[in-house]
Amino acid sequence: MSDDALELLALDWAQDIREQPLPQGMLGCWDDTNGIIYLSSRLSPVQRRCVLAHEISHARHHDLGCHTDAWVERRADMDAAKILVSPIEYATLEQINDDPAWIARESDLLTWVINAYRDLLHDRAA
């Protein structure tokens, strides 16, 4: 998905996307009360795409707060993977090298997105 398409998708669920300095260790946050996705202004383009896709999930589900439980965070990671990972590209790359960090670099994604995609594949097969 292109960055422009990802932005449009985010704006289907959020009123605004704001980039600003966030507290140490926080890359993004969904403010359900105001309908705003906050992204750290210190993110690289790849980090920004992945974090935005993750925050879109929180917006879609109207999750409350910036720190939710492990289940909600896992769901957000898996939703981000559904948005960002091309199944054909993933399958092709996995045939070449099954290292998730390598696949992530080749796909311009973060490793956690590839790991979440693998979890999705595992859950579907189970």
From TrEMBL:
<feature type="domain" description="IrrE N-terminal-like">
    <location>
        <begin position="29"/>
        <end position="70"/>
    </location>
</feature>
<protein>
    <recommendedName>
        <fullName>IrrE N-terminal-like domain-containing protein</fullName>
    </recommendedName>
</protein>
<dbReference type="InterPro" id="IPR010359">
    <property type="entry name" value="IrrE_HExxH"/>
</dbReference>
<dbReference type="Pfam" id="PF06114">
    <property type="entry name" value="Peptidase_M78"/>
</dbReference>
